[in-house]
């Protein structure tokens, strides 16, 4: 049976969910946010039109590949909302990676985002990022692609009709001074999004992250995404193209308030490939 996945309203998606670094920059009330999404999608069945855009009928989702916590990186630093890898460097002008959109199922009213970005670990973050969001609202899963330039709110990509299992390719490239080109390619559906924008970045770090987006909470709830594997993780630093593992990368794990690991990066499978696993 084909399961139908619907997208939240573009209005509610544009609320500031603050996919931030280690410090929240913008906040809205979590209850208000979740209620708005619930009202927007509560009647979703088959094809649906939201804000003048029609979604569906949906494709049949791909089989999602899941890996286990077999090779955890025990040197990972703790974070309240990030898990994955970061590289601190100067003059980072490009980042890219590919992944299969994970499937979420629990807990109720939880969220996870898979993304790449530049500038997220600076003392005063100037994060430019793009990726996919997987959330559970009142027990139902919802998926969409997005881009964001802090401190602005995330911008959903209506051109991509995202499903779990979709093979994604995402790149962010500086093409001159403060000019950037962001490309999000759903290789499964064949839907491609490209946008050129102006943004002042510190160019001081590269990130490949699975995140529990924070919404006016000190410790956000990570949706059970099971696992996600980043491949072809690469970046450009000082004009040189590098794979993630070519420099002094830092693993980051998401931990609970009592110090328990929730989301665990694995050791690099190669210089440009790694997985992150939901522990719960």
Integer count of domains? 1
User: How confident overall, as mean pLDDT?
Assistant: 83
Judged by helices, strands and strand pairing, the structural class is: mainly beta
- Radius of gyration from the CA trace? 17 Å
CATH architecture level-2 label: Sandwich
Uncertain residue ranges = 1-57
Q: Write down the CATH topology.
A: Jelly Rolls
Q: For the record, give the distance between the C-alpha atoms at the N and C termini, rounded to a whole number.
A: 29 Å
User: How do the SSEs run, as a string of H and E?
Assistant: HHEEEEEEEEEEEEEEEEEE
How helix-rich are the residues, as a percent range?
under 10%
Work out the strand percent: 35-45%
How many helical elements?
Answer: 2
């Amino acid at each position: 049976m084909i399961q139908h996945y619907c997208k939240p309203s573009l209005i509610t998606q544009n609320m500031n969910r603050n996919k931030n670094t280690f410090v929240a920059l913008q906040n809205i009330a979590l209850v208000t946010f979740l209620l708005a999404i619930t009202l927007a999608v509560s009647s979703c069945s088959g094809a649906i039109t939201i804000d003048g855009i029609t979604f569906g009928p949906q494709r049949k989702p791909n089989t999602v590949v899941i890996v286990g916590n077999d090779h955890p990186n025990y040197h990972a630093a703790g974070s309240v909302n990030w898990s994955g890898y970061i590289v601190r460097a100067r003059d980072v002008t490009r980042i890219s990676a590919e992944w299969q959109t994970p499937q979420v199922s629990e807990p109720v009213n939880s969220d996870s985002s898979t993304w790449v970005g530049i500038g997220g670990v600076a003392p005063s973050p100037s994060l430019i990022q793009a990726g996919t969001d997987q959330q559970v609202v009142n027990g139902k899963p919802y998926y969409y692609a997005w881009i964001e330039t802090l401190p602005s709110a995330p911008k959903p990509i209506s051109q991509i009709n995202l499903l779990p299992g979709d093979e994604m390719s995402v790149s962010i490239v500086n093409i001159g001074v403060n000019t950037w080109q962001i490309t999000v390619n759903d290789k499964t559906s064949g839907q491609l999004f490209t946008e050129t924008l102006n943004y002042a970045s510190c160019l001081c770090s590269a990130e490949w992250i699975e995140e529990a987006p924070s919404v006016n909470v000190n410790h956000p709830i990570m949706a059970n995404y099971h696992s996600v594997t980043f491949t072809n993780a690469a970046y450009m630093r000082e004009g040189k193209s590098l794979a993630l593992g070519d420099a002094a990368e830092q693993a980051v794990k998401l931990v609970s308030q009592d110090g328990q690991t929730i989301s665990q990066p694995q050791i690099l499978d190669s210089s440009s490939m790694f997985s992150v696993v939901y522990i719960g």
